[in-house]
Design the sequence.
C-alpha cells in the first residue's frame, strides 16, 4: 500500500542555518504530496503542497519539489528561525480521500 | 471564521469504559475525517464521511470503534470497552469538498485533537 518515510528527528539547528528534512514515498499512480506542521500546543496546519511531478510548493520560506524519478518531496528552508521549531509531517493523498502521513520530524532551532 | 473544534480536549477513562469524542467541522464543509495519532507517530486514518454517510471506514481498528454524523455536520467517534492501547490523540479534519488530489476545495483543516488516556 501507499506509504511515506521521513527522516527521524530531532533535527537541531542554530538560527539562520539551512534546513533539509527528507521525505520519500511509495504510491501507485500520481499522488498529491503535502507538508504539514504542528507547532507546540497547536493543531496540524498545511504548510505546502504539490499535486504533480516537478511542481514546487512554497510557503513561509519553505520549499519542496515533487520528484517523481526519486519519489521524494524533501522540505527545505534557507534560513531557519526559532519560531520554526515544530514537528513537520510529510503526507500523500493517492487514489482515495485519506491522507497518509509519515512519522514526523521534530525541528529544534536555537538562537 | 471558526475552525474545526473538538471536545473534550482531554479525556481520561478507565479500561473497559465507553467514551465519545465530538468534532464540529468548519461550517459548510461536507467532508469530515477522523485520524488517530499515537505518541511519536504520524496521524493514521480511521474513517471518512461525505455528508451523513461513512464513505470509507477502512481505518477503524476493530468493531469497538464506531462513528456517526447524523445530520451531516457534527460527528461523534465512539469507543466501547476501551483498552490501554486506545490511548492516543484523536484528530478530526474537515474539507469543503471530497475528492482526490490537492485541489483547494479538498484541503483538510485539522482540529486541535482530543487526547484520550485509558488507565
Sequence:
Amino acid at each position: 500500500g501507499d506509504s511515506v518515510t521521513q527522516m527521524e528527528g530531532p533535527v537541531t539547528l542554530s538560527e539562520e542555518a539551512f534546513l533539509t528534512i527528507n521525505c520519500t514515498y511509495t504510491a501507485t499512480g500520481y499522488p498529491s504530496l503535502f507538508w504539514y506542521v504542528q507547532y507546540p500546543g497547536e493543531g496540524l496546519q498545511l504548510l505546502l503542497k504539490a499535486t504533480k511531478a516537478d511542481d514546487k510548493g512554497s510557503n513561509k520560506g519553505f520549499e519542496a519539489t515533487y520528484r517523481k524519478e526519486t519519489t521524494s518531496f524533501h522540505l527545505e528552508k534557507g534560513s531557519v528561525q526559532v519560531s520554526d521549531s515544530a514537528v513537520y509531517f510529510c503526507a500523500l493523498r493517492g487514489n482515495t480521500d485519506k491522507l497518509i502521513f509519515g512519522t514526523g520530524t521534530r525541528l529544534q532551532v536555537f538562537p | 471564521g471558526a475552525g474545526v473544534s473538538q471536545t473534550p480536549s482531554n479525556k481520561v477513562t478507565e479500561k473497559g469504559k465507553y467514551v465519545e469524542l465530538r468534532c464540529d467541522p468548519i461550517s459548510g464543509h461536507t467532508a469530515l475525517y477522523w485520524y488517530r495519532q499515537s505518541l511519536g507517530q504520524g496521524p493514521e486514518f480511521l474513517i471518512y464521511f461525505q455528508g451523513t454517510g461513512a464513505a470509507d471506514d477502512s481505518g477503524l481498528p476493530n468493531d469497538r470503534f464506531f462513528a456517526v454524523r447524523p445530520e451531516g455536520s457534527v460527528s461523534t467517534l465512539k469507543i466501547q470497552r476501551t483498552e490501554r492501547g486506545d490511548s492516543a490523540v484523536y484528530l478530526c479534519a474537515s474539507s469543503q469538498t471530497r475528492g482526490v488530489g490537492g485541489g483547494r476545495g479538498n484541503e483538510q483543516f485539522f482540529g486541535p485533537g482530543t487526547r484520550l488516556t485509558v488507565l
In short: The interface with chain A takes residues 3-4, 31, 33, 35, 40-45, 48, 55-56, 59, 91, 93, 98-103, 106-113 of chain B (CB under 8 Å). DSSP finds no helices and eleven strands in chain B. The two ends of chain B are 37 Å apart (CA to CA).
